[in-house]
Design brief:
The complex is a heterodimer of chains A (about 250) and B (about 270). Chain A is an alpha/beta fold and about 250 residues long. Chain A contains nine helices and ten strands. In chain A, β7, α6 and β8 form a beta-alpha-beta unit. Chain B is mainly alpha-helical and about 270 residues long. Chain B folds into two domains: about 50 residues; about 220 residues, no CATH class. The interface between A and B is medium-sized, with 23 and 13 residues.
């Protein structure tokens, strides 16, 4: 499969805290890659490096074969129009209603008319199973709805890849299931690849084509779910066996 | 910074940095902030010159920063003018010079009190509001979301707020000056039995274009200081609610001090120019 991203020996520090310690990873077009790991293992930091929200201290990041490790802020703009980011809390703009939130990337990057924007907003909301909520503000939405609106905003400009930062954290099992189904649907219907950072096993089972396991800043496993089940790494085994002694 | 505490075996032990280390740390932080403010100013200027203005957002900020500050600045100006007239009458009557109440009230308000008090009030109300808003956006990753959608938070958030601060502060000051003088006239007429026409004629004689220009000229700088400090502190919030609270306090304190210090130097500058 064709690579979108390639990470080579990525290191990232925050003061004395060495968060990422030599990460090597390929992200392939058309697949859902799930990055599993405990809290504070560096999963979200790795996602932010991919779109330049943080910069790596050492190592190289390639996007479509081009080195993007040390680009200036504006250098990341073409990448950010092709890669969407779904933040953990949704990160909807709370001074804007749902319509304005979804219209924001379209108004910023296209010359579409108001009618076309409204049609596209309605279409995106329909894809995530929400309708007639354009006038609502984020403060009046439930956690699950907020995640779905954020997902609608992420897909509205038809990205090639979506980076999901813990998409199901804090949601009840039914809403978690809905979000997982949507992630699969995005891949199947819209051919959008995904990188999903999580520590939620239902998301791993439902969404992963390939799994990477991050432990204390090191990538200790990359493979399929079947291979992960056979892994001898004690922490990874604990995730699959539900063992809390490790 | 300064004091480091550690809880160990039931004992809380605290250690203070040595004075040179503490002072060094403080100065390095001040210079770091100054550097960041200079960079933010350049980004603001670049966006202002090269990007299309978002007039709708500018209008929204004019309303927040200008219109909604009217009541607080006008009430303060009215009572400042009234107090000034009372104090002037008390001081001047000892020398039989109470005919100059209008001169003293108008010059004090137009040259100094109007601009500085308006700036301090707007700095407190608007500066704190901007920092809290941007700080909350930073803490809830809304600024990162803007960046991740290939948009520039400086263009979207800083430019409208800073432009509104720079434009609204002189306008608020003009109104505050007028209302302050009306306050003085009110006290002079009803409390001190000075003829209203005489009071106003003294005001018109006392005030020159230079007085008005020197007072208003300063407010453009005050507006810039309030806006840039508030935006900078908001966009640098590191943690959640606690960080937002600290940044908001920092904005009010820094803006007030910068206004008072810069007032001295700007006054000197305008006296030299005029």
């Amino acid at each position: 499969m064709e690579q979108i991203y390639r990470l080579e020996q990525i290191h990232k520090h925050f003061g004395d805290n060495h968060v990422l310690r030599g990460i090597d990873l390929d992200i392939r077009r058309g697949e859902n890659l799930v990055i599993l790991g405990g809290s504070g293992s560096g999963k979200s930091v790795m996602l932010k490096l991919l779109v330049g929200l943080l910069t790596a201290d050492k190592g190289k990041i390639y996007f479509d074969g081009n080195d993007i490790t040390q680009l200036p802020e504006k250098g990341y703009y073409p990448i950010r129009t092709r890669v969407s980011y779904l933040f953990q809390g949704g990160a909807l703009f709370d001074s804007m209603n749902v319509y304005q939130n979804l219209a924001y990337p379209l108004k910023a990057h296209t010359d579409m008319s108001s009618q076309d924007i409204l049609a596209q907003v309605k279409d995106a909301l329909k894809k995530v199973g929400l309708e007639e909520i354009e006038h609502l503000f984020p403060g009046s939405l439930s956690g699950g709805m907020m995640k779905r609106v954020a997902l609608a905003r992420a897909i509205i400009n038809q990205p090639e890849l979506i980076l999901y930062d813990e998409p199901t954290t804090g949601l009840d099992p039914l809403t978690t299931h809905t979000i997982n189904e949507l992630i699969r649907k995005m891949q199947k219907d819209l051919q959008i690849s995904s990188v999903i950072v999580t520590h939620d096993m239902p998301t791993v089972y439902r969404c992963a084509d390939r799994l990477a396991f991050l432990d204390e800043g090191c990538m200790v496993f990359i493979g399929t779910i079947e291979q992960a089940r056979q892994s001898t790494h004690p922490k990874l085994r604990a995730y699959f066996q539900g063992d809390d002694r490790v | 910074m300064g004091i480091h505490c550690r809880y160990r075996k039931g004992l809380l032990t605290c250690r203070a940095d040595s004075t040179p280390k503490y002072v060094g740390h403080m100065y390095s932080r001040i210079f770091q902030n100054l550097g960041q403010i200079v960079i933010l100013t350049f980004e603001f200027a670049q966006c202002l010159v090269t990007r299309r203005p978002q007039f709708k957002e500018w209008m929204r900020q004019f309303h927040h920063i200008g219109v909604q500050s009217l009541s607080i600045t006008n009430i303060t100006a009215l009572f400042t003018g009234m107090v000034l007239a009372l104090q002037a009458a008390y001081a001047l009557s000892a020398f039989g010079a109470d005919v100059f109440i209008g001169d003293l009230v108008s010059l004090s308000i137009v040259r100094e009190l109007g601009p500085v008090l308006t700036a301090l009030l707007v700095g407190g109300r608007v500066g704190a509001g901007i920092t809290a808003e941007l700080g909350t956006m930073k803490a809830t990753q809304q600024l990162d979301a803007m960046r991740s959608m290939a948009t520039n938070p400086v263009y979207r958030l800083v430019v409208p707020r800073l432009v509104a601060c720079i434009i609204c502060l002189p306008l608020l000051t003009i109104l505050a000056n007028f209302i302050g003088i009306i306050g003085g006239l009110f006290i002079a007429s009803f409390e001190l039995q000075v003829d209203g026409h005489f009071f106003m004629s003294r005001v018109m004689q006392a005030l020159s274009v230079n007085d008005v220009a020197s007072g208003l000229g300063k407010t453009f700088f005050f507006g810039y200081f309030i806006g840039i400090i508030a935006c900078h502190n908001g966009m640098r919030v590191e943690s959640g609610a606690e960080g937002v609270g600290q940044a908001t306090t920092q904005t009010v304190v820094s803006a007030s001090i910068v206004i008072l210090i810069s007032d001295f130097f700007l006054t000197k500058l305008f006296i030299m120019i005029t």
